[in-house]
Amino acid sequence: MAETQYAIEMLNITKKFPGIIANDNITLQLKKGEIHALLGENGAGKSTLMSVLFGLYQPEEGVIKKDGQVVSIKDPNDANDLGIGMVHQHFKLVECFTVLDNIIMGVEPTKHGFLQKKEARQKVLALSEKYGLQVDPDALIEDITVGMQQRTEILKMLYRDNEILIFDEPTAVLTPQEIEELMQIMKNLAAEGKSILFISHKLAEIMAVADRCSVLRKGKYIGTVETKNTTMEELSAMMVGRNVNFHVEKKPAAPGDVILDVKGMTVASKVHKNNAVKNVSLQVRRGEIVCIAGIDGNGQTEFVYGLTGLEPLVSGSIELCGQDITHASIRKRSTSGMSHIPEDRHKHGLVLDYTLEDNMVLQRYFEPEFTSKAGFLKRGPIRAYAEKLIDQYDVRSGQGPVTIARSMSGGNQQKAIVAREIDKDPELLVAVQPTRGLDVGAIEYIHKQLVAQRDAGKAVLLVSLELDEVMDVPDRILVMYEGEIVGELDPKKTTQEELGLYMAGAKRDEVSP
Fold first, then answer.
1. In what order do the strands lie in the sheet with 476-481?
2. Is 364 exposed, middle or buried, given 0-12, 13-18 or 19+ CB atoms closer than 10 A?
3. How confident is the model at residue 1 (pLDDT cuts 50, 70, 90)?
């Protein structure tokens, strides 16, 4: 009888890829009705292990048991038949379909060959009511927020009556409010008897929501602990293999000349008729980190697009080191001293099907160091340069410089971009959510790099949604709400509560720019 207390057992699972053992003899046991967190650094093998459970990969060794019986999961359809569902880190939704169509796709209810949408809609509405997952079934995916897309993914699992729910880094793209709602939803699901596997490297969330936590490090299983008997420090040491400093060490800033001077910037919105950025003016000086804070969708993205040249301005001007770059090309901005760590690493940060070494020289390949007079790339210097950065920034990949960027873990893709942008030795570093989706060890490292840039006399403009980062890293905070700067705060003197009021638009400084 004791056998069946586990809903899922993954026993001695080994999964290999070229040049790397992603899962090295891992055993994971999920109890019925529990929320079980899977914690590990970027590239520790968490997503790979869950992809094995969901049938996306076949392991070289090991077995999977469900309710004590050995099962074979050859593809995601087998997983679904066994009641296993998965919300992926990058959602698997059809943009031009409605929420309802995405939920029922593949299991459409039919009668005499005709689609019975009415029953499906009633079932979806009943589920959304029961679990507090409010969605508009008729909205198109491309028109709804990321948080709503995630609810659609969760309803997709519930609609299929899945009992075992896998959440792969579910909070990476959510706002703080959406994260709280999701935590509550997960607790409700567990209370209903669902068993949840929750991949994360956000320690506070694991402590708040999980019953037990299993830790992986470099593909190996380190151990399982009950969260009520552990601490964040203990978990981070298990995960990284050393103690991590959660607080950024930095001496007071000594701001110098103005490097970036933005006057009256207005940028149009792609989504609605109003402008996304309205008459924003700000300055960033040498030797300081200025952070633009705000809840996602308040014009930060469009501001950065206008600044870096991805979108034209409706009005306003931009000066970099005293030079007008308002209408300059993206390459001109780059060669004039601007580096950009973009928000969407897949869309704007990397060419996913290029090698790591080619991605490292994306903005410099035309320099004499990397291209001959005849216009041919110098492969030797490119490889040597990539190897230097890979080593310096601890970018982990199966095949070093020749690894295809797509095959790397998200965190290591991010490290590669950070390495490339900082090594260009910019006057202005624009870092947009530079630690999104990174583990505590990598976050600590990137924060140190930002401070080092500041201390080297560079200007750093940080855009962040993470409250801890906003409070800890910058020297000045500018809060953006509905496309306007509504307040300037000193991180040493403000509180998270006050910052939250500005971010929600409940408070603003009455100062004319």
1. 338-341, 428-432, 459-464, 288-293, 476-481, 484-489
2. middle
3. very low
Tell me 176's DSSP state: H
Q: What is the pLDDT of residues 96-151, one digit of tens each?
A: 888 889 988 888 888 888 888 888 899 989 988 888 788 888 888 888 777 788 88
**Do 485 and 383 share a structural domain?**
yes
What is the C-alpha to C-alpha distance for residues 434 and 429, in angstroms, rounded to an integer? Answer: 11
Three-state DSSP at 32 gives coil
The model's confidence at residue 510, banded by pLDDT at 50, 70 and 90, is low
Characterize 475-506 residue by residue with b for buried, 16 or more Cβ atoms within 10 angstroms of its Cβ, and e for exposed. Answer: bbbbbbbebbbbbebebeebeeeebbbbbeee
CB 199 within 8 A of CB 169: yes
- Domain count of the chain? 3
- Domain of residue 129, residue span: 93-161
Residues 63 and 140 in one domain: no
Specify whether the CB–CB gap between 255 and 290 falls below 8 A. no
Are residues 224 and 76 both part of a single domain? yes
What CATH number has the domain bearing residue 239? Answer: 3.40.50.300
Residue 327 CA neighbour count, 13 Å, CB half: 2
Render pLDDT for 39-91 as a digit per residue (tens, 0 to 9).
988 778 888 999 999 999 999 999 999 999 999 999 989 998 999 998 887 77
* Residue 69 φ/ψ, nearest 5 degrees: -105, 135
CA angle (305, 309, 311) in 5-degree steps: 55
Strand 258-268 versus strand 288-293 pairing type: unpaired
Distance of CA 128 to the CA centre of its chain: 26
Residue 88 has a pLDDT of 80
> Does residue 179 lie in a domain region?
yes
User: Are residues 167 and 229 located together in one domain of the fold?
Assistant: yes
pTM for the model: 0.72
Would residue 322 count as lying in a domain?
no
Q: In the 8-state DSSP scheme, what is residue 140?
A: B
- Read off the tokens for 347: 């869309």
**Does residue 379 lie in a domain region?**
yes
Angle at 192 between CA 187 and CA 193, to 5 degrees: 100
Per-residue pLDDT at 3: 47
> Across all residues in the chain, what is the average pLDDT?
89
75 lies in the same domain as 97? no
What confidence tens digit (pLDDT) does each residue in 305-357 have?
999 999 999 999 999 999 999 999 999 999 999 999 998 888 889 999 999 99
Contacts of 423 (CB under 8 A, 6+ apart): 389
- CA-angle at 435, arms to 425 and 300, nearest 5°: 85
Tokens encoding 238: 């298990």
Q: Is residue 277 part of a domain?
A: no
Burial environment of residue 58 by CB neighbours within 10 A (0 to 12, 13 to 18, 19 or more): exposed
